Amino acid sequence: MSDFYQNGVVTVLHRLGQPNTEQLEHELERYAKTTPIALVLPSLYSELERPALKRIVEILGEVRYINEIVISLDQASALEFRLAKQFFAQLPQRVRVVWNDGTRIQALLNTLVSHEIDIGHQGKGRGCWTAYGYVLARGQSQVIALHDCDIVSYDRQYLARLCYPVANPNLAYEFCKGYYSRVTDR
Q1: Engineering a disulfide at 32: which of 54, 65, 76, 171 sits with its beta carbon 3.0 to 4.6 angstroms away?
Q2: In this model, does residue 3 exceed pLDDT 50?
Q3: What is the pLDDT of residue 1?
């Protein structure tokens, strides 16, 4: 069986015409009252100094349908962890920075390893799973959205279109993945 096999229905939701971002956000605010939405942001500390994340945080400050934001922080010292907490403190949502290099998370990972549970290599994937575990353990959100912190062209529409198919109770989607263009000189 191919690596690309997917169980269930996979739908491509094209953007046909100009979406009404305000209408999507209004509906999401209504849905979020009964189906709270968490946003996971995997981030390297170095991304805090880049314009993309500064713009993302500025825009997230205006979003009213996100219940909580969990930043999965990698490659950060103790000082950088404290600076990251200050950086994200400007957001009006409930914010938690999960410090993947910190002693508490490392102790948790070591416990898993001692029970022969494969935790994989350090990186965005493991950091995302750690953040998902945090959101699920809290039990305060029913939808988890995730996006990168390096989206230079980020706007409110990206997040609304990412959350809408899963948060809308009239749709039967359990998963939604958004795509955005990456332009690089690498």
Answers
A1: 65
A2: yes
A3: 46
